[in-house]
Amino acid sequence: MPGCYRLGWRHGLIEEVAKARDVGINSIVLFPKVPDALKSPTGDEAYNDNGLVPRAIRLLKDKFPDLVIQ
Prior knowledge:
Blueprint: H1 13-22, E1 27-28, H2 52-63, E2 68-69
GO biological process, one term: protoporphyrinogen IX biosynthetic process
Family: Belongs to the ALAD family.
Keywords: Allosteric enzyme, Chlorophyll biosynthesis, Heme biosynthesis, Lyase, Porphyrin biosynthesis
């Protein structure tokens, strides 16, 4: 999709969110790329505290506590 980029949860994500906040954006949506091997019919990876999304949310909330993440 044009204008969409895959960012690393440790590198790139913080910088992009900081740029967005600089222009007044305080809400983001995460669209993770979960490895196929972790996918299941019941979505078990969504409940993994050390999964990609929970780690990204913790990282972002540590840096930007008032950020709205959808």
